[in-house]
Write a structure and sequence with these properties.
Length: about 425
């Protein structure tokens, strides 16, 4: 049986591939291969029934050459240190690629939030902040949201940090409710940013989103908002799946009805005017654009040859393995990598930091206008480099980001 490649192994494969093309020396590879700092913590939480339960939490700070590190915090039952290390690495690349003056970080807890009461979840959030408190701060490490960490969770995290520091510092966390210093549009930024980047890549290919068919794996924050923006741009979402089931309609799914269905039942399954569809059926169906927006390793060597979409936009982090990407590209499929496609959340998290530090907040229109400019410019630049150097979009993106990180490390005197 083939061993499933881990997220961190994928990140290292990507690094070594680009390092060979760029002729990077061992000093550079050494700095980038391992996070600068990793903290693993045991988090005791008193449950509602009086018992004491211990959870494992992590925070990894990958590279601070470009500035204080920043990145999401994931609450997921299958969270691992390996995932956190990989995601912190990818955040370093994303931030550099988008010209954000920050390095990458990532945190998380091994927990299924759905199994906790609201009070248990709040106690877990506060205990996690106490455990990682020495690593945090607006000039050190700024955690943001991710899977399982909505605005309420970010509000509890921020409040506990302020209780411990005895200072009002909303800039320490991103993804907060706007009333507590959160940026307008942050909850939709990743989905909207993905659509901006897809539209720009298509424009480079002399076409548009108008009339394109879209299949989306995952209907969480990213997938659901991406579906809305795809529809608004003239595309047709024909299939959606989540962990409990899926829906298919070749004439197009009513995305607002899908929102209501998920709100009412917790799943897209059974949506009116659609046929049931499974996860593999969606990934392998014929469509113009496929958006894997769930978890990593969804398209591998096993199913890559059966992918029929002509354009794959990575909404999740690492949903396509390196071997699968090569197969798809050889088959003429355009792959828009995660570090380009899903960076909208990271960008607006940076906008939130800027607004908090200034105590001056932008309108939602201003946020999206600035987001679109960065997403379009980044995608356009990466596309041109990929054509000029005859490399994949992912390799072009890594090259662009690494040039900035390496220059910063050289100027600091870290490397020769």
């Amino acid at each position: 049986m083939t061993k499933e490649i881990t997220a961190y192994e994928v990140a290292l494969q990507e690094l070594h591939h680009v390092a060979e093309l760029m002729h990077l020396n061992d000093e550079v590879i050494g700095y980038l291969s391992t996070p600068q700092r990793i903290l693993t913590v045991s988090i005791p939480v008193r449950m509602d029934n009086g018992s004491l339960k211990f959870f494992t939490g992590y925070r990894a700070q990958h590279n601070s050459a470009l500035g204080p590190v920043k990145g999401g915090t994931r609450f997921h039952k299958d969270e691992t240190l390996d995932d956190v290390k990989a995601l912190s690495f990818w955040m370093t690349i994303k931030n550099a690629l988008s010209n954000i003056p920050a390095g990458g970080a990532k945190g998380g807890i091994e927990v299924d939030p759905a199994t906790l009461s609201k009070t248990e979840l709040e106690r877990l959030c506060r205990a996690y902040v106490k455990a990682v408190f020495p690593m945090l701060g607006p000039k050190v490490d700024i955690p943001g949201p991710d899977v399982g960490t909505p605005q309420q969770v970010m509000a509890w995290l921020m409040d506990e940090y302020e209780n411990l520091s005895q200072r009002h510092e909303p800039a320490t966390f991103a993804g907060k409710p706007p009333i507590l210093g959160g940026s307008l549009g942050r909850d939709r930024a990743t989905g909207r940013g993905l659509v901006y980047s897809v539209a720009e890549a298509l424009r480079k290919m002399d076409t548009t989103l108008e009339g394109k068919t879209v299949a989306i794996q995952g209907f969480g924050n990213l997938g659901s908002h991406a579906a809305t923006f795809f529809t608004e741009a003239g595309a047709k979402v024909i299939a959606i799946v989540d962990v409990k089931g899926g829906a298919y309609n070749p004439k197009g799914i009513d995305v607002q009805a899908a929102f209501r269905q998920v709100t009412d039942t917790g799943s897209i399954a059974g949506l009116t005017n659609t046929d049931a569809i499974g996860n593999q059926e969606l990934l392998e169906m014929k469509c113009d654009i496929l958006v894997p927006a769930a978890l990593q390793n969804q398209i591998t060597e096993t199913n890559a040859t059966r992918i029929q979409a002509r354009f794959v936009a990575e909404g999740a982090n690492g949903p396509v393995t390196p071997a699968a990407e090569k197969i798809m590209i050889d088959n003429g499929i355009f792959v828009l990598p995660d570090i380009v496609a899903n960076s909208g959340g990271a960008i607006v998290a940076y906008f939130e930091l800027v607004q908090d530090l200034q105590s001056y907040f932008w309108t939602e229109g201003e946020v999206f206008q600035r987001l679109e400019k960065i997403m379009v410019n980044t995608c356009s630049n990466v596309y041109e480099i990929s054509k000029t150097k005859n490399v994949t979009m992912r390799t072009a993106a890594w090259m662009t980001a690494l040039n900035k990180i390496i220059l910063a490390m050289q100027l600091r005197g870290w490397i020769r």
